[in-house]
Amino acid sequence: MNRNKIIIRTSIIGILANVFLAAFKAVVGFFTNSIAISLDAVNNLSDALSSVITIIGTKLAGRRPDKKHPFGHGRIEYLSAVTISVIVLYAGISALVESIKKIITPEAPDYTPVALIIVAVAVLVKIVLGTYVRRTGVKVKSDSLVASGKDALLDSVISASTLVAAGIYLIWGISLEAWLGAVISLIIIKSGIDMLREGVSSIVGERVDSELTNGIKETILKFEDVRGVYDLILHNYGPDSYIGSVHIELPDTYTMNQLDRLERDIADAVYCDHKVILAGIGIYSACTDGGKAEEILTDIRKTVMKYQYVLQLHGFSFNEDEKEIRFDLVIDFAAPDRNALYQQIVSEVQNKYPDYKLRATLDTDFSD
């Protein structure tokens, strides 16, 4: 079964389960006069709506590329996740308003054994449903399913808390309904904010998972004569769609025909192993005759790598005729001031080689 069908099937299961639970909880909440259980029913309806949005988003994201969207429509799934988080946030705020009203004008609940049994069953159903939806979401890389699964697991905690409140009322006669409703509302609001933050982060663009980037580098390094893999940049056009570029280091003896064939073979291997399209493969030329170039490279690497936060030096090039030295410098984002550190390093290297024109590029740590 393909990815989209799995997402849709899982979402349909979520819709049926949530509508079923919402109906029972609404009836229980009405007859027991329980604001907490009633709010829990509303939350179930919002979960069902989230599943509907997931299905719509998956359908739209699965549309074929067109002239206006040549990279496809996969990013719509991220918008679906953001929409779901907004719904959760709205449900939490609405519930908080209702709870505050009940705190101001409290009403005593009237619990029955049947009502409590229904809520207890709902807790178990939500735990099973939430675990299933979340695991499926992780498996197929669907942010919408992951968000729905997390929300369902949170619902199980909320439903369990209503049982605790019922127990306190039945044993000690203390009604915590309205206050519990307020606490539940705040939990829902926090969950909505967290989900919204994650969804927006995906849209903005996050660092690609290290397992994928390291796997791509390992695939490329298997080719004979490839001495290094650098500057791997991947652009995400949906949870399962990547297009990118990379630089590889090769001996300076390679001919154009050899380069052309190698680049094609690497692109084919990366797509076959990782389903990633390498739209561009740049070349760094590695000196093979040793001599002064190798000596200078060794010295500069020793000078540069002693600095904290320096991750890598690559793309080294030496031209004696033009008195020029080039290299790329990768500095960790964790550095307090990347530009200041870069200037300090360049200054030290330039002082060591005053007769040469130094062209050092501050490179970005795009991937692991």
Question: What does this protein structure show overall?
Answer:
There is one protein chain. By secondary structure, the protein is of the alpha/beta class. 63% of the residues lie in helices and 15% in strands. The chain is built from 10 helices and 6 strands; from the N terminus they run H-H-H-H-H-H-H-E-E-H-E-H-E-E-H-E. The strands form 2 sheets. It has a 3-stranded mixed β-sheet, covered by helices on one side. Strands 4-5-6 form a 3-stranded mixed β-sheet, covered by helices on one side. Helix 4 (113-140) runs antiparallel to helix 5 and helix 5 runs antiparallel to helix 6 (177-204). The radius of gyration is 29 Å and the shape is elongated. The mean pLDDT is 86.
The helix/strand order is: HHHHHHHEEHEHEEHE
For the sheet with most strands, the description reads:
3 strands, mixed
Biggest sheet strand line-up: 1-2-3
Number of strands: 6
Head-to-tail CA distance between termini = 32 Å
Overall geometry comes to elongated
Helix % is 55-70%
Class from secondary-structure proportions: alpha/beta
Rg, rounded, reads 29 Å
Uncertain regions spanning at least 5 consecutive residues: none
Q: Beta-strand level of the residues, as a percent range? A: 5-15%
With helices defined by DSSP (H or I, 4 residues minimum), what is the helix count? 10
Compute the average pLDDT: 86
Features:
alpha/beta; 63% helix; 3-stranded mixed β-sheet; single chain; 15% strand; 6 strands; 368 residues
